[in-house]
Amino acid sequence: MNTLAIIFIIFLSATPLSASNANIEVDYCIANRSLPKGHQGYPCKDPAKVTTDDFVFTGFRGEKIITNIFRNNVTRANHDTFPALNGLGLSMSRLDLGVGGIVPVHSHRTSEIIVLINGTIIAGIIDTNNTAYFKRLEPGDVMIFPQFLLHFQVNVGKTRALAFVGLNGANPGIQITSTALFAGNLPAKIASQITLISPGEVRRLRMIFDRIGTGQ
């Protein structure tokens, strides 16, 4: 199965089902990013000014540079970067993981589906019963992460890993547990109290994030 076929499957799998789909009145709503964005996305571009390029995203091309503390690079395609996604309730990402790289424990407002293209990773979900479901994925494998649940990916291979993810939301958001606790404005004393991590260790983690940054 080639990469293009895999990406197409991601989109089909991520498409949200909505009663509004039965009342579609336009073929598309290409984002007019010169106007302010609202809760449902951008206003529509004048159809007379729509071009083929509006339906094409080239941001996933080429080698991606990995510089952050997690040894990953996440390239996002959403209605801010890919005008044709406007109003469709979809977004995508390209995920590059260096050797030993991770996507730390995090959650989204939406469900996510991942297809591994190259490399070997361990991907996992932790449900609300604190049960972890994790699996070693090889190229061509697909895994689903239900909305709001904590999940993660770890490159356990000897080469870089490449995956594509689809999300059934235009703005899925991401909340990374470690950065939420140790890279934001939460006081160190409170972070220590709610995690049972010593104040000294909390300060060490905060210094790491302050010095290096997360790149997320």
TrEMBL record:
Read off the InterPro entries from this record. Cupin_1, Germin, RmlC-like_jellyroll, RmlC_Cupin_sf
Q: Which residues form the signal peptide?
A: 1-19
So where does oxalate get bound? 108, 112
* Residue intervals passing through the bilayer: none
Which Pfam families does the entry link to?
Cupin_1 (PF00190)
Tell me the ranges covered by the Cupin type-1 domain, including all copies. 58-203
UniProt GO MF annotations:
manganese ion binding
Q: What is its main location?
A: secreted
Location relative to the cell: Secreted, Extracellular space, Apoplast
Disulfide bridge map: 29-44
Q: Give the domain of life.
A: Eukaryota
Chain residues that bind Mn(2+): 106, 108, 112, 151
Which is one Gene Ontology cellular component term of this protein? apoplast
Keyword terms: Apoplast, Disulfide bond, Manganese, Metal-binding, Secreted, Signal
Give the protein family. Answer: Belongs to the germin family.
Name it: Germin-like protein
User: What gene is it encoded by?
Assistant: LOC110778208
